[in-house]
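hey all, quick one before standup. I had two proteins in the batch that finished overnight and I want to keep them in one place so we stop losing track of which output belongs to which input. First protein below, input sequence then structure tokens straight from the run.
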Amino acid sequence: MKLEDKEFEDYYHRAHHLTNELLSTYNNNLSLEENKEIDTFLKENHLSGELIDRLTSSEIHREYYNHLAQENKEENLALLLAQMRKEKPKQKRFRIWYHIAASVAAIIAIIFWTQSERQVEKYDDWYSQTITEQYTQPTLILENDSSLILADDTQAIVSQDYEIKKSQGNTLKYTVTSQSGTLRYNKLIVPKQYTYTLKLSDQSEVILNAGSILRYPVSFAGDKREVELIGEAFFKVAKSDKPFLVRLGKNNVTVYGTQFNIRSRTNSDLEIVLVKGSIGFKAENQEEIRIKPSQIVVCQPETGKTQVKEINPKDYIMWTENMFVFKGQTLERILSEVSIWYGVQIDIQVDVKDMKLTLITNKDNSLEDILKFITKITNIKITKTGDMEYKTE
């Protein structure tokens, strides 16, 4: 066996062994430091940034583990080695990977990517590596994948041709000093109980709600301005000769000068509310729908079915003013937004999911106070079942 193959095989087997060690650690409610093998592994390899966040995430680790448990490890290893020898153009990429493969999560990710040979959308790729629940403070991921926690004392961030300034009120502002001609992306991650304002290099403004991520260029080179969103955001788009596009997985919003709100949550309908101006919404493989002010377009992710309705847009953007405003919304929708804001999980019984009610309250209220209020007006008891887990009864 070649030395290169032996090196990869050693990494591969160690990855599988350490996934079991990690699972044992989480199942026994231990910290990573209490597992000597994991602690030694982390110290040896000096992990940082997204890789360490992915490795120490119990949620994403369990997802990896459950996937791996169904596979034949030795067959997969043989397949990987055969493919590495066959596809020489990719060998450089593999070498890079198993020199940064000190991250177990990175090794497992490359196993999945190689074995499946599926074409994965870039949108899914960058989001799958960034789990908002693992962040307790707003975090900026720079173009070199380094992480910067946006604490109160964060100073200006200066690159060769752009500057990022943080001001009071949770605001980041980008200023381009010279055009590079290439697209370089940053990501802003907004965790629970935060909202954050981003002023892009074209003077457009985006307010991100809790549990949201925006991927965007530091400067808009080329003939269009395009950003990618997971979560919820309110946009005020600056006028320009370049069209502004918001990518939402396989769906797109084209902006024709406007203010609008997008709610793009996992396992939920996509909602776009137009406050001012004009936008076009295009679901996958469908014709573009033009939306007028005071309209909402709702798209079901499973079917692509869309519906346009007249609404009061203010009801959908009061979150930017630190308010929960739900008028005639289902209990499922309300508890979903509440759980995202407070960073908890709330399991809802099927028979009460569609119950509709109105809730208007300040986000500064405690979770317990909000749940008590919901119980009072619905007679549905909501009990705590774990550290961050609740359920309806």
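OK second protein, same deal, sequence then tokens:
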Amino acid sequence: MDYKQRIQSVLNYIESHVQEDIPSESLVALAGFSKSHFLRVFEAYTGFTVRSYVRGRKLDLAAERLRNSNDKITEIAYDYGFESHDVFGRAFKRVYGITPENYRRGRFLLPTFHADNLALQQQGAEALIKTKPHTMIVTKPAMKLIGIECRFEDGVSSPDLWKQYFDEWQQTFGNIAHLRVEPEKEIDYALTVDRDESGYTYFIGIEVTSVGHVPSGTIARLIPKTKYARFTAIGPVGESIGRTYDLIFKEWFPSSSFQTAPGPIMEHYDMRCKSLLL
């Protein structure tokens, strides 16, 4: 069974059990991946975290019930796994900007959250990438990084961390610039870490020789010696990174014998701004 079929079987399972509590362990077992790999592959194919996708389907079907039935709102809330009327109401308003009561009274037009059908997606990433990135398996020595980070969760918009990083670089990192490894190359690193069912933490920073002094507002991250698959994204950063991730998870991993380990995904930006490590 290929990757697309595995994720589609997970989506089908979610759809047939959407009124139940769906533990992520059940989905991981169904997909046949490690948990860390499953979470990344699921998001690559659907564009959503597991939690966001399940919640989106529950709320979409609950909204349909509100629109087409006279069932009590509390009954609908319980039927779709919400602990109470209040919990359901908060989730509904957070997503749709309106309470269930006002929606039922006003019959407003809400955005839909359809069940995903991967067969309708474009076949693979090959059509999106004219020149495939060069790939190597490399082992990187242990690294010390200092930077800033932000949690990205459940599709909630977050600050532009890259803008903050560049705008405040001198103020934040100026006092430790002398600790930077290979300062002449002006290398910046971004890490995707602590990924779970609802999101991940994104870190941006520099490699340093020592973490003895960690400036206020920053955090140190120690990365052990790790084996990576290294991809070089080709083209403008804003376009090529997303296309490269598509190729990695929809084409490279399915045709390789590898899965991601629980550690970080690392993006490496030098003066070319083109290297990506996974």
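Flagging for whoever picks this up: The longest strand covers residues 143-153. The beta strands are 135-140, 143-153, 188-196, 199-207, 219-223, 226-232, 265-269, 275-277.
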